[in-house]
Amino acid sequence: MKPPMTSKPKGLSGFPEWLPEQQLVFECFVRLIEDQFRLYGFTPLETRSVEPLEVLLAKGATDKELYTVSRLADGSDAKAPDLGLHFDLTVPFARYVVQNRGHLTFPFRRYQIQKSWRGERPQEGRYREFHQADADVVADGELPLCHDSEMVVLLAETLTKLPIFPVTLHVSNRNVLLGFYTALGIADPAAVLRVVDKFDKIGRERVGALLGELGLDQKQIERCLFLAEVRGRSPDVLGSIEAAVPKCELLERGLAECRQLLRDIEGVAEDAVVLNFRIARGLDYYTGIIFEGLMHGFETFGAVCSGGRYDRLAAEFGADLPGVGISIGLTRLLGLLFGKGALAASRKTPTTVLVALDSAAVYPEAFRTAQRLRARGIASEVFDAPLKYSKQIRYAEQKGIPFVWFLKGQSSGGHEVRDIRNGVQEPASPEAWEPPRADRDVTVSRTGG
Amino acid sequence: MKPPMTSKPKGLSGFPEWLPEQQLVFECFVRLIEDQFRLYGFTPLETRSVEPLEVLLAKGATDKELYTVSRLADGSDAKAPDLGLHFDLTVPFARYVVQNRGHLTFPFRRYQIQKSWRGERPQEGRYREFHQADADVVADGELPLCHDSEMVVLLAETLTKLPIFPVTLHVSNRNVLLGFYTALGIADPAAVLRVVDKFDKIGRERVGALLGELGLDQKQIERCLFLAEVRGRSPDVLGSIEAAVPKCELLERGLAECRQLLRDIEGVAEDAVVLNFRIARGLDYYTGIIFEGLMHGFETFGAVCSGGRYDRLAAEFGADLPGVGISIGLTRLLGLLFGKGALAASRKTPTTVLVALDSAAVYPEAFRTAQRLRARGIASEVFDAPLKYSKQIRYAEQKGIPFVWFLKGQSSGGHEVRDIRNGVQEPASPEAWEPPRADRDVTVSRTGG
Question: Do the chains contact at B15 and A80, CB–CB below 8 Å?
Answer without folding.
Answer: no
